[in-house]
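Re-run with default settings, no changes from the original entry. Doing this only to confirm the output is reproducible before filing.
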Amino acid sequence: MESTDVLVIGSGIAGLCAAIEAARTGATVAVASAGKTMSGSSFFPGTWGLGLIGPVDEGDEQDLIDTIQAVGGGAADPTLVHTFVHGIPQAIQWLEQNLGVELQRPQSAASAQQKQFIPCFDHKTRMWRGLTRKPLEDACTAQIELLGIRLLPRHELIDLLEDANGKIVGAVLYDRANEHLVPMAAKATIIAAGGTGGLFERSLTSADVLSSSQAIALAHGASLTNIEFMQMMPGFIEPKRNLVFNEKTWRYVTFDQPVDIADEKLENLLEQRSGYGPFTSRLASRAIDLAIDQAGAEGLALHYDFPRENVPEFVQTFATWLQDEHGIAPTDEMRVAMYAHAANGGIKIDKTAFTGVEGLYACGEATGGMHGADRIGGLSSANSIVFGRIAGASAAQAAQEVPEAALKVDIALPQHGIAATDAERLTRSLKHTMSTYCMINRTETGLSAALQELEGLKSESAALSMKDARDSQITALSRLQSQLLLATEMVKAMRMRTESLGSHYRAN
């Protein structure tokens, strides 16, 4: 059986930061990812890049901490929030000076103070940095080569390995290229495999975000937190699907079909809606998102009326990206629908990225507790860097304390599987259930129906399970069961929270 000191599951920005930090201590590190290396939400091509925000200076730290707690509706973990905010300046410095990542800045001090640079849900401008894919990829590639980090692209997490005491001692991976299971022993394991967007029909994340790792951690003793706070975000349906709709441009929108909003209110609501990206229940401008949601899968027809002069820098950057990268002119007719976006909840960790299960750490969007009910824009990527570094350091330290003999474990690989056609059909049904009942309009009746349908899918998957299956069939069943478990836990959390709070909206 293959082995490593630290095994990282996921190769987005959180996983790569964790791997680099662990490897710098001298630990041997392997990075497994369901898709290609450098994938997931961090490298999602449907947005221009990642925004990073942080406190302007030490005096701004407490204000940002207080704002996160207020925006998050009191649902964020205070210890995690403090650790997070305090770590952002050092994390950005580490990116620039240690990794050599070239970060974008506002063109001028005056530009930095434009309202378009106020992060969504925030009340003031912060330190802002832009992180685009190519500089990040180049810097990470150089570090991976320098530190000898082993890459395992197209290796999907199927299960975690436990010893007799319940300690996590590695993982079972599925090599998609060669279609066989690969047991991997590890002194410490880090889950950084992304959020829960993979459970929905429309998702503003990459297809390799499978939304199964949280359930795998749960099955081995970890806890989940804040998983009802799934962010939903408007995105383009036409002229091109799976592109993020930039929130700063709402003030320039004209609807091309009737909406259930009074004309005299619409302009003010669009202006308010320009202050944030994902849906929130706490502002009157939720009416915009509800109108989009009502339009369904076909989306809501609209177009832009950008000013001819003095276009704000942030808006111009987005318009240029739409034109250059996707061939979409600001004058084109467009349709916008609601998409699953980012998870504010996930695996519960402490300030050292420890899950409470010996040998298991987590970071990035797979975790929860740092944001609460709503997330300030620019803090998702910042969270991934801060806690990615923490997870890498913690896992490397834990690995140093494990003797080499501990890597020799006896395992029994799973044997039951399901036919690929059945797995695909049931997965489509799962995503349809979540998209029908668990987007922004959540009701007691709908959530109860969702639980019923998910239980039916569990029963059907069990009935279709077969012994002595091929590794690909074993993987298909394991993935489906994990996704069903996570979806069920999410719906239960949505049902238990009967009040509307931030990204969680209970119509009744």
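The longest strand covers residues 180-191. DSSP finds 13 helices and 17 strands in the chain.
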